[in-house]
Amino acid sequence: MNQEELLRLPFCPIERTLRVLDSKWTALLLRDLLGGARRFGELLRSLEGVSPKTLTGRLRTLEAQGVVRRTIYAEVPPRVEYALTDFGETLRPVLEAMALWGIRDAERNAERDAEPARDLDRTRGDRREN
């Protein structure tokens, strides 16, 4: 779809996508679910730094949006798993494109950072060689 076709739509498709991928944790949570069903504790450990409250909120929102499915198993103790729905799986190419972009950006920055650079020493205000 070209720019002209995008402008004729009654909504912005990128904005709609960002409504789902609305936070750092959402994208990383979906990344983890691309590998298959996960339990809450597995997701919590994988997403270093996320609070249980935030993770619960993200999972509930994604479930309400039809992106994630929550399955409760009648066991003792009860077991709950989260997985992508068929609709959630349609985000796979979006997340894979984000991953590819991130790899390219890391490579570009590695090349740039390998070159000697002049930088301001913020504490003294003078220039120094890196």
The strands making up the biggest β-sheet line up spatially as 1-3-2
Spatial separation of the terminal alpha carbons: 45 Å
Q: What is the alpha-carbon Rg in Å?
A: 20 Å
Q: How many distinct beta strands? A: 5
Pattern of helices and strands: HHHEHHEEHHEE
What form results from the Cα inertia axes?
Answer: flat
Polypeptide structure, described:
With 130 residues, the protein is α+β, with helices and mostly antiparallel strands. The chain is built from seven helices and five strands. The chain has helices spanning 3-8, 13-20, 24-33, 40-46, 52-64, 86-89, 92-114; strands at 38-39, 68-73, 79-84, 118-120, 127-129. Strands 1-3-2 form a three-stranded antiparallel β-sheet. Strands 4-5 form a two-stranded antiparallel ribbon. A hairpin with a 6-residue loop joins β4 and β5.
Summarize the structure.
With 130 residues, the protein is α+β, with helices and mostly antiparallel strands. Helices cover 55% and strands 15% of the residues. A three-stranded antiparallel β-sheet has the order 1-3-2. Strands 4-5 form a two-stranded antiparallel sheet.
